[in-house]
Amino acid sequence: MLFIELASAxxxxxxxxxxxxxTDLLSAIYKKAKVNEIKKLTYxxxxxxxxxxxxxxxxxxxxxAIEAVAHATGYSRKDIEKDYRKAGDLGLVAESLxxxxxxxxxxxxxxxxxxxxxxxxxxxxxxxTGSQQLKIRVLAELINNSxxxxxxxxxxxxxxxxxxxxxxxxxxxxxxxSKAGDKSLRAELERAYNLCDDLGLVAETFVSSxxxxxxxxxxxxxxxxxxxxxxxxxxxxxxxxxxxxAIEFKFDGFRMQVHKKGExxxxxxxKLEKITNTYPDVVEATRKLKHREMIFExxxxxxxxxxxxxxxxxxxxxxxxKYGVEQAKKDYPLYVYAFDLIYLDGxxxxxxxxxxxxxxxxxxxxxxxxxxxxxxxAKDAEEIEEIFQESVKKGLEGIMAKDLKAPYVAxxxxxxxxxxxxxxxxxxxxxxxVVVGYYLGKGARAEFExxxxxxxxxxxxxxxxxTVAKIGSGYSEEEMKSFHEMLSEIKRKxxxxxxxxxxxxxxxxxxxxxxxxxxxxxxxxxTHTCGAKDGKGYALxxxxxxxxxxxxxAREITTTQEVIEMxxxxxxx
Length: 573
Ligand code: ATP
Known about the structure:
Blueprint: H1 3-15, H2 19-32, H3 35-46, H4 62-73, H5 77-87, H6 90-99, H7 113-125, H8 131-144, H9 148-158, H10 168-180, H11 186-196, H12 199-208, H13 210-214, E1 228-231, H14 235-242, E2 245-250, E3 254-261, E4 264-268, H15 280-287, E5 293-304, E6 309-310, H16 313-316, H17 325-331, E7 334-344, E8 347-348, H18 354-364, E9 370-372, E10 376-378, H19 381-393, E11 398-402, E12 413-421, E13 431-439, E14 452-459, E15 464-471, H20 477-488, E16 491-492, E17 499-500, E18 507-509, E19 514-518, E20 521-525, E21 537-541, E22 544-548, H21 560-572
Parallel strand pairs: 1-12, 7-9, 15-17
Antiparallel strand pairs: 2-10, 2-11, 3-4, 3-5, 5-6, 5-7, 7-8, 11-12, 13-14, 13-18, 13-19, 14-15, 16-18, 19-22, 20-21
Bound molecules: adenosine-5'-triphosphate.
């Protein structure tokens, strides 16, 4: 398939905002592509070259992309930088320069989707001395062979600015429509995606052997998209919803998914990035388990031996580092509280009930570094309340109630798990929101050049980030300094097109940082766009910065639907 066909479809998609139109345009592309192009095509649409757990990065900053555009078009870097400052979009600059190109390509040839993808892979894989020059050369050659429209999307792709607003749900819909003419195959595609987090693989399997999608199974070293918890406001509601249940403490550490096959062990974060090298102690302990093949999940917490208590979340996060691992291992010894079993010696446990999975787990986990999270039975609301109070006394976040009969619901927030958290003001939970912009400080804060942030949650139906709070309090001086440093590096003049906002902060930023926000209440207000209807959106009242969630990215924040659910819950309280 020619890349120009994909670039034209991107051009069309960019002009439309309706999900149905996007789905149709994309399904037409899927129909045209050959089987061996499906995987590459899917990654290109996602704006990636491999699923995140493979850790393959283009490693091509803006500076180098500018240099490649200069090489390819014959214009100077200075000219390009000037145009870029004006346009705010390097893709548009490349497009317009290619239209009036000074040097005519001698051997310009038509690019295929594979040509473009393979070149991206070469860029990503080149490392070591001279690699930056090689990356620039490969990209320049690609741009040199591009039409203006192709060049625009290639440049946006390498700079991480594809911004088409095509979310994974649209890709799943498009695949289903390409074969069935409607969304009837979406559920089975989604199930497979949740089990492997690799949309390229799912799309390829779906096109080449559709039967395999129906029987898709978990595989060791392919991380499973994590199950998530719903929230309810009271123990009574929990009992009403799932009846007699199991209660576990909700530990405030970080989630790990551990995979083992023989001697080989890999660990994935909640974002499903490979973090194995950071935790040699967990690798070692897992190796010692007698089962040959397994996937389990647990919450990792660092233990303060001097004070005989767990470190806080922030302190525990000191263990998430690339360098100085050995020292960190000594300073912050970890415990992992295993809370779920996904796979064991050839058997996929995702369809087994919680009780069954738990029964197996109890046979596996020794005490020591790997422990099993304690399970308590609760028959009624009072018993839940008692355990909840105990968790608060212990300084924990709250509890998780688990439906005894529920399977492991990969990638979904369902009532299989229900969290009950200690309250923050009147609220039932905190919100994880992405920073979309920031304000300069006034008065005493002027010296920090930071006065607060504008934060948004995600609306998957509209594929937009909708603002929910302007957070001006809860920062220490240190935090103001570091927010200013972090955010000024990624500031931009225009709002990213996927952000829907009525407010205009002093600076917009790339959607990179996720923050946890506490609040007192949720109200309807014309200020914010979250779930807006008739000009009023949901807004957090008295929002306060709790912490930066460096273990999250913009893909994993609170959704608009969740904010609406929290509003309903709090209204009912
Ligand atoms: P939060 O911000 O409240 O941690 P979350 O978005 O991380 O929420 P939720 O689905 O709300 O995810 O809650 C599940 C999280 O709670 C898991 O990701 C896990 O890290 C943590 N957790 C702590 N203890 C347990 C437990 N016993 N069982 C399951 N998850 C647990």
